[in-house]
Design a protein that fits this description.
Layout: E1 7-9, E2 15-17, E3 32-35, H1 41-47, H2 49-60, E4 64-68, H3 72-77, E5 85-86, E6 100-101, E7 108-109, H4 115-127, H5 129-138
Parallel strand pairs: 3-4, 4-7, 5-6
Antiparallel strand pairs: 1-2
Length: 143
């Protein structure tokens, strides 16, 4: 949670208890940062400077960052998409001005309907093709 509270309610009225708040989290051994989409959450993430500083540090160090739904707009705001392939929730397409906008499944993703392909790609990047294929088989995806 980027808030200083663990008990949060989403824009869809879902109550959740987070494990940690942002300022308590050590990201030093993280392999990748993945930010979720949705509104107005994406707006809040893009305005939360400690997160944006962390994303920028990861990006400048060549570490992996990923986003789904509306969240690629945060990457656009900080210049991560310049000349790169990216996609987003369709209503956010106009905001990704510097990207080579795609509608296929790349490391940014369009929304909940593409979440399994998005997650599988992240597993493949971190663990490899074999592990990705085993994961997809274990959830009976595409069979």
């Amino acid at each position: 949670s980027i808030k200083n509270i663990r008990d949060i309610t989403t824009s869809h009225g879902i109550h959740m208890q987070t494990d940690l708040v942002f300022k308590e989290t050590d990201f030093s051994d993280a392999d990748m940062l993945v930010i979720p989409g949705g509104m107005p959450g994406t707006k809040y993430l893009g305005e939360y400077q400690p997160l944006c500083d962390l994303l920028t540090d990861f990006y400048k160090q060549g570490k992996k960052v990923a986003a789904i739904c509306a969240a690629p707009t945060v990457f656009e705001k900080y210049g991560f998409l310049e000349g790169r392939k990216a996609t987003s929730y369709p209503a956010m397409e106009e905001e990704l001005k510097s990207a080579d906008y795609q509608t296929d499944k790349v490391i940014t993703s369009r929304g909940m309907g593409t979440a399994i392909d998005f997650a599988a790609k992240l597993v493949e990047i971190i663990k490899g093709t074999k592990e990705k294929d085993e994961l997809l088989k274990s959830i009976v995806y595409g069979e």
